[in-house]
Amino acid sequence: MKYLPLLLIPALALADGPKDNLADDVRPVPPLGVEVPAADADALKQGLKELRSAIDAAAKAQAKNPKLADLLPDVEIFYKSVDWALKYQEVHKLTELKTAQEALAEGKLRAGQLKEGKTPWTTQKGLVVRAYRSKIDGSIQPYGLVIPESYSGAATRLDVWCHGRSEMLSELAFVDQRRKQSGLATPANAIVLHLYGRYCCANKFAGEIDLLEALAHSKKFYNLDEDRMVIRGFSMGGAAVWQFAVNYSDKWCAASPGAGFAETPEFLKVFQTEDVSAIPEYEKTLWHWYNATDSALNLFNTPTIAYSGEIDKQKQAADIMEKYLKAENIEMIHIIGPQTAHKMHPDSLIEIERRLADITAVGRDRTPEEIHFTTWFLRYNKMHWISVDGLGESWKKARVHAKITGEKEVTLKTENVTALTLDMPAGHCPFSVLDVPVVKIDGKELSVAKPKSDRSWQVHLRQVKGAWTQVASAQEEGQLAKHHGLSGPIDDAFMDSFMNVTPTGKAMNDKVGAWSKAEMERAAFEWRRQFRGDALSKADKDISDADIAANNLVLWGDPQSNAVMAKVIAKLPIEWTKDKLVANGKTYDVNTHAPVLVYPNPLNPKRYVVINSSFTYREYDYLNNARQVAKLPDWAIVDLTQPKTTRAPGGIADAGFFGEAWEWKKAK
């Protein structure tokens, strides 16, 4: 541990602590803003009208520009930031009215430039606001860049920064920050990418995909050195770094989390003094998704430098990670600012920058000799040249230990893994194209396919009748099975493009129909508030083959009211008619119970179908980011005789996970 002299940088915003443990007295997140004077509102509306016209003119003039789809969001974000702040009363202080006028002016400037085929912001140095259109919901999402004066187009180190918690961080506030503030991390000769992360969700769910989409967009314009990418953040951003470090370990040259939280249960006890003992077992199981402690072994693959203030309550995050890493025989570097509360100590920052400079000078090894990988479900299935294609049982710890142990030999040891792929990209296989490699896996020795002439190597392995065998493909053709992108739980469906399918028919009964309608309306409202997009929506009668091909379908209503649900219900694992509801061998009163579930769509088994659910955490969970985790598994039966609350859509009569072939699992 390293203690350094005291000189403080201002703290970032915190959650409110134990007073936010009252589920019956939940404050709104985001909070309602101030009243905007009528004259100011009129001026902003006029400015928005003018900006909209300028954007439309630019889009028309550049309709044949192949880069238009990637450039237009850079202009549209200024419109969205002002429009949403005004429309949804998210102007949180009157000084933001000047900010809004500045945003409109910048948007008009860019629109005019784009109309003429000019995009000077794409080569601008210093602070640059960028944006992309998300595949999830078609929304415009911002990110910020700090481009060093030294950037000349050569491959350049990239530091990704995850921001701290701020419930008033609207798009308007974020864009203003990214136009005027460099932030805490300003390493020499490096590009820094500041994530918005879908507002205030600790970069979970859609906020997690925000990282991948912002990176993909920025790579189209800047030469980012993918072997020198660092993930960093503080407070809520530190929590984001812990999860990105363990779940995407092979992406980073280094990780540097500061404060935050690294898991849910112990943090809530320490920071919120919250009793979590009564939480259902399926919800505790779902903690594995974002508990970095449970996948601590993956930091074997990523150099990590943790930071905490000595007297910061959120030091708990690094302390518990240190404990779990020690259990994996890994000693963690933990830099501590002495007598420092929830702040980044400047001298600590200097030390972190020094260490990161040393690490980035070496860079990431794309084909490491040794890999150690833990996963709990197939959302996270890849680590360097190892991909896990099947599990014995999801949500049980699965591990792969892999090592190149000879000139043509790989040794693997697995736990709870039934299928995997060895995949080394072109130019990265260390074996001779003349030799037949040997794979030793769980004590069995296999001679497998040779590397190709481009020095790539790919081998698919699967347990067949209990024995490891080389097979032709990662997935068995025609077999319904959980795999990456189709593994459940319900919340997984909202990490890719989805579409709400609204019913146009009459519900089978009024009580269930009214409940589903209210949940559907809430889903759209909360998606906008929490994930900052307007969820795509179509009536059941208007759903096309293209919609089915491109989206996870979220079906609201019942098999009588929703025409799309009527098409698929017979191929789903539930029986739901006017007379009864049957799930996992149990029969429920159809007048007082409703199912929610996720399942491969019978109309397109490569996509999900979801019934009567959006993301599964609710208003109580918005108050602390450690609570913002999946609350329901693959399926649940909602008891409508119990009221919906800020924690659940009603009483949960039963809930559980489907098996690896999407079959019912016997009740325990």
Provide keyphrases for this structure:
668 residues; seven-stranded mixed β-sheet; 4 domains; Rossmann fold; six-stranded mixed β-sheet
Shape: globular
Oligomer: single chain
By DSSP, the count of extended strands is: 29
> Under the CATH scheme, which class of the largest domain?
Alpha Beta
Rg value: 25 Å
Percent in strands: 15-25%
| Overall tally of domains | 4
Low-confidence stretches are 1-14
| Major beta sheet summary | 7 strands, mixed
Number of helices: 13
Chain-averaged pLDDT: 96
Just name the CATH architecture of the largest domain: 3-Layer(aba) Sandwich
Condensed summary:
26% of the residues lie in helices and 24% in strands.
If you had to describe this structure to a student in words, what would you say it looks like?
The protein has about 675 residues and is an alpha/beta fold. The protein folds into 4 domains: about 250 residues, Alpha/Beta hydrolase fold, catalytic domain (Rossmann fold, 3-Layer(aba) Sandwich); about 90 residues, no CATH class; about 90 residues, no CATH class; about 170 residues, no CATH class. Helices cover about 25% and strands about 25% of the residues. The chain has 13 helices and 29 strands. The chain has a 7-stranded mixed beta sheet. Helix 1 packs antiparallel against helix 2, helix 2 runs antiparallel to helix 3 and helix 3 packs across helix 4. The radius of gyration is 25 Å and the shape is globular. The N terminus is likely disordered. This is Prolyl oligopeptidase family protein.
